[in-house]
Every structure is written in structure tokens, then in C-alpha cells.
Amino acid sequence: MAQRQLEALQREHETIKLMTNSELSQLQMEHDKILEKNKELDLKINLHRGYFRHQSEELGSLIMAVTNLADDCYMRHYGQLQDMDILTKLDMIKEFIIEKKNIEQMAALSEDCRSPLSSAIELTTNKEIGTTQLKSKSRSSLGSTGKTQTLQNIRSKSASLKA
């Protein structure tokens, strides 16, 4: 009877031992999976850090470029440059560029308007002296005054933009 009890206890012990080993093996596999997942996540984090670092550097470069442009395109009515946020600086740069473009277009129009008038005056110089004097008088009242006023407007706008 003692022998049977001993054998029963040994079988029970072996069964418990097998069950415990099986459970331990499952836990070990879960642990290994978790370790592998942690390694993958660490790798992803490091990749993202590098990506975000690169993006931060690019953003810093863009902000510095906008600040430099804003410094070059400064317009007084926007206030102090140091107090402006990035969007205000961009608005100021946009306004500056639009004004420069408008000035350039006005200068081009001035050149276009001047060319036909001066060509007409040159043609009339071959005609009679009286007609030439009349055309010259017309030119001086229209062409040179208009051109002078347009150039003065352009210069004053350029001066105000630089200031």
C-alpha cells in the first residue's frame, strides 16, 4: 500500500511537473515575442526620431529663410520685425513682392507708352519746322511730364519700400 501511494505521488508529481514545464514554456515564448516586439518598436522609435530631427532641421531652415526675407522686405506699417509671427512675416513678404511687381509693370507701361510717342516725334522732324515745333511742344507737355511723373512715382514708392 505504501508502495502504491509512492507510485501515485510520483505520477502526480510527474504530471504536475509536465504541466508546469508546459506553462513555463508558453510563458517563455510569450516573453520572447514581447522582447522581439520591443526591439521592433525601439527600431521604429529611432527611425521616427531621425525623421523628426530631419523635419525639425528643415523647419528651422525655412523659418530662418522667411525671417531673412522678412528682414529684406521689411515694411514699417507691419510693426517691429521681432514682434511678428511667421504668418505676418509671410504676409509682409507677399505684399512687398506684389508692390514690386506693380512698380515693374508700371515702369514697363511707361516704356511702352513712351516708345510710340517718341517714334511719332522723330517722324515729324523730317517735315516742316512749324509742324515739328508743334509736335515737340505736344511731346514736352505730354511725354516728358508724364514720364517724369511716372518715374517720380516709381522712385517715391521704391524709397518708401526701402524705408
Description:
This protein has 163 residues and is mainly alpha-helical. Helix content is 88%, strand content 0%. It has three helices and no strands. It has helices spanning 2-72, 86-124, 129-162. α2 runs antiparallel to α3. The protein starts with a helix and ends with a helix. The model is unreliable at 125-151 (pLDDT under 50).
List keywords for this structure.
0% strand; mainly alpha; 163 residues; 88% helix; rod-shaped
Blueprint (SSEs and pairs):
Elements: H1 2-72, H2 86-124, H3 129-162
Structural class: mainly alpha
Radius of gyration: 43 Å
The percent range for strand residues is: under 5%
- The counted number of beta strands is 0
The poorly predicted ranges are 125-151
Assembly state (oligomeric)? single chain
**Major sheet, described briefly?**
none
Number of helices: 3
Overall average residue pLDDT:
79
Distance between the termini: 113 Å
- The succession of helices and strands, N to C, reads HHH
> Residue share in helices?
over 70%
What's the short story on this structure?
The chain is an all-alpha fold and 163 residues long. The protein has 3 helices and no strands.
